[in-house]
Write a structure and sequence with these properties.
single chain; 87 residues; alpha+beta; 2 helices; 11% strand; globular; SAM-dependent_MTases_sf; Methyltransferase type 11 domain-containing protein
């Protein structure tokens, strides 16, 4: 139920702002996983990586999306300068 609520919140904020780009209004009003999938659909040539401490990720058939289970307090499993944009 929590995932559904977060997805609905994301869709509401996206509808109100008519965009996925409304920072800094993001905070916890939207679902980061849903945002990531929306962006991956909009930019199919880009690579998107999602991380969370909880292994609850949406099912997707998008080839440009990968999810990792990791605790950011223990560091990230990526080399320095891996990413062009971090959200």
């Amino acid at each position: 139920m929590e995932i559904s609520r977060l997805e609905m919140s994301h869709l509401l904020v996206k509808y109100l702002w008519k965009s996925n780009f409304s920072s800094p209004i993001h905070d916890k009003l939207t679902n980061e996983r849903t945002w990531l999938l929306d962006m991956a659909k909009m930019y199919p040539k880009a690579t998107f990586i999602g991380i969370d401490i909880s292994p609850i990720f949406p099912k997707t058939n998008l080839s440009n999306v990968t999810f990792f289970v990791t605790n950011v307090l223990n560091g990230l499993p990526f080399e320095n300068n891996t990413f062009d944009f971090v959200f």
